[in-house]
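Posting this for the archive.
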Amino acid sequence: MKQSIYFLLICLLPIACSKKVTIVTEATQEETEEVTPPAKDPVPEMTFEERLLHLGKVKKGDQVPMSYTFTNTGDADVEIDLISVCDCTEITERPYKAIKPGESGVIKAIFDSNQKEEAETIDIDIWLKYIDPVLDMPKLERIQYTYEF
């Protein structure tokens, strides 16, 4: 008895594990319907010329201007809700209006080295108004800069 069960399992296992199973019935032969995949929701996408700027060597007290140019390569408007930076960074220019797909925008900032003692990489977080449906959170873009003392 056990041998016949093992024999059936060995014979049926490849059939059960196959990736494509087709069941043909009279209804499926008569009614064929074309299925279209669901439409993808429009998503904004910020494509930066450079996400990481290298400022090189700076001296204590230097104030270094930076500029990040981006293009909206998505299929929805890019709308910036919030830009989060550390105390050593000031955002001096940013788009307040929506950037349409295919259009470009600029984010400008100034790094103030007075508050720093050693080289590091600093993040600038850009929170968009778009809510990611999977995470149920605003979409986050990150740009950075690095410097040496």
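The chain has a mean pLDDT of 84. Helices lie at 2-17, 26-30.
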